[in-house]
Amino acid sequence: MSNLEKALNVLTENIKEYRTCQITDGIRLLEILQQLTATLFYLEKERASYHEKFQNIINAQVMSGESVARSENTAHKQVPEMYLLRHIMTSAYECVGAIRTTISYIKIEINNSKN
After folding, report:
1. Three-state DSSP class for residue 88
2. Which one of 71, 94, 96, 108 is CB 3.0 to 4.6 Å from 58, fit for a cystine?
3. Where are the domains of the chain?
4. pLDDT digit string (tens) for 51-106?
């Protein structure tokens, strides 16, 4: 299993954990948030590497006379990780935002209960 696959599995497992986590379990939510953000940091590096491969294919195809659209299709076929990373990471960032919102809500509730 490649490092990319391992990182994607970490994302998947943490998002599954988030789905089943008690909404009031702030400590567990913080742990999940930590894992997601650290994994996304790693995946940004991977995405940059795949993006470079993707762009090099487009550039080579265009330089050899292919249209940009055809070149992009070729690049998508040769570097399927670009599409995968783009969409999975976008979804994971949305989960990170939702977890942050939930943690903020918990914090507000804790502060309001002290008053």
Report:
1. helix
2. 71
3. 3-114
4. 999 999 999 999 999 999 999 999 999 999 999 999 999 999 999 999 999 999 99
